[in-house]
Amino acid sequence: MSAGRHERWHEIVRRLREHLEGSHEPSVSTVAADSQDPFRTLISTVISLRTKDEVTTEASARLFSRAATPRDLAAVSAEEIARLIYPAGFYNTKARSIREIAHTISHQFGGSVPNTREALLALPGVGRKTANLVLGLGFGIPAICVDTHVHRIPNRLGLVETNTPEQTEQALEESLPHEYWIEINGLLVRFGQQVCTPVSPWCGRCPVSHLCSRVGVERSR
Ligand code: SF4
Questions:
Q1: Of all protein residues, whose CA lies closest to atom 3 belonging to ligand 1?
Q2: pLDDT tens for residues 22-41?
Q3: Is residue 177 part of a domain?
Q4: 139, 167, 195: which is the final residue of a domain?
Q5: Cβ(206) – ligand 1 distance below 6 Å
Q6: Closest CA to 44 of 141, 165, 115, 125
Q7: Please, what sign has the CA dihedral across residues 140, 186, 133, 129?
Q8: Do 41 and 135 belong together in one domain?
Q9: Interval between CA 219 and ligand 1 midpoint (Å)
């Protein structure tokens, strides 16, 4: 890994923290911080996929006020879970996954969310993105959650050169200082929603424009 890239990351994270100070954390980060409960973090992450933050926050609150432990949630029907998390995207599919996750954790893991990537990935509806977010936010175990923003922005910055989120995760593991592995998702999600947007990013008001190669950016504001 190059010292130059490390230095750029230190500067980028410092500037993003400053720029985003006071802006709302993603809903899953808030659930994780408020509850300090890996199970709620996991279930909220499942709800959050392809779903707006406000919807995730409200759906999670409705669901957890009905049942907040694996054992209690496993006893709720998938139909009722779907009603509680509606209008989250794919609410029927997610409801079935949530019930199965609760059942598996309750019966195979003694009621505690497993804290290894391998075991998390074996749960229904849990992919690499969810597993890494739960490791980081739920257990404080450094893991880089690469969603669409974490894939797009480092490529634009010229800090990685990758085609898939899996490749980005691997490239970031080599270049991103370890101390930012958990935090980077929350920073880049907010930055990607507010400034480095998918189409026509706001480069004119970007706090890291002097550090950015703007790879693949054809139109900006
Ligand atoms: S300069 Fe533009 S492309 Fe680069 S990080 Fe900032 S907003 Fe994104």
A1: 214
A2: 888 888 888 887 888 999 99
A3: yes
A4: 139
A5: yes
A6: 125
A7: negative
A8: yes
A9: 11
